[in-house]
Amino acid sequence: MAVWTPQQLECLAILNVPVYDFKAPPSAAERMPAPSKQAPAVPDADEQVANAPEHYYRLGPWLLRTQGPLPVQGLPWLNDLAAHVGTPLSQVKQQDRAVDISAYLRDSLTATEKKQLWALLQENVMK
Length: 127
What we know:
The chain is α+β, with helices and mostly antiparallel strands. The chain has a domain at 53-123. It is 34% helix and 13% strand. Strands 3-1-2-4 form a four-stranded mixed sheet. Strand 1 (54-59) and strand 2 (62-67) form a beta hairpin. It is elongated, with a radius of gyration of 30 Å. It starts with 5 loop residues before the first helix and ends with a helix. Residues 27-46 are annotated as: Disordered.
């Protein structure tokens, strides 16, 4: 690739300016990786949940852990619990003794699920 004209090269030589050879930048086709013959692996739902980042929250006397963030508007049962303990839910840094509530992250819970969740929370009250 000619960067300099002969006249420019002569002027550079008179001024004692060194001239360097430049390589041409790779073309777009050269920069693109070759397409893979094999289809990309799509992780199944369990694998996606396992790889989801954990989020930690404090609610009254509890430290809670979820796989993935909670909805911005919260969950109805979680909002009721926050009103009951009189403190808002707040996100915190990673905690060692957090209760995993990922199994309960939906708008409505059955009576059995509420009992299980309450028992889990009572076992893990932070003192």
